[in-house]
Amino acid sequence: MVFEDEGVLAFHDILPHAPVHVLVVPKKHVVRLSDLESTKGDLLARVQDTVRRLADHFSVNESGFRWVANNGPDAGQAVGHLHFHFLAGRRFSWPPG
Q: pLDDT tens-digit profile of 4-37?
């Protein structure tokens, strides 16, 4: 566990794709990003705050990080619960995938 509060869990990915690969998971169940209602802005605010904390914790604010949510099977979503990937510690290419 890297971080936890009443709304969010953050923990290391068991199959990392970067030196730093942390999953940020809202505790409230939402299947995917496109299912998130606009009234749930507080959930996204919690996630964003957690990402900011992770960037500080891993000292990657200056060097950079990637924050990703896969939405549906074609995008690579393999788990039916909304989660975000926080990746850092190496240079990333564009476009991804």
A: 999 999 999 999 999 999 999 999 999 999 998 7
Could you confirm whether 21 is annotated as catalytic? no
**pTM for this predicted structure:** 0.93
Q: Which of 12, 57, 83, 85 is catalytic?
A: 83
Q: Which of 86, 81, 33 is nearest to 60 (CA)?
A: 86
Number of domains observed in the structure of the chain: 1
Q: Write out the H or E segment, with its range, that includes residue 49.
A: helix 41-57
Report the pLDDT averaged over residues 58-73.
97
Q: In this structure, is residue 96 part of a structural domain?
A: no
Q: Which domain holds residue 36?
A: 3-88
How long is the chain?
97
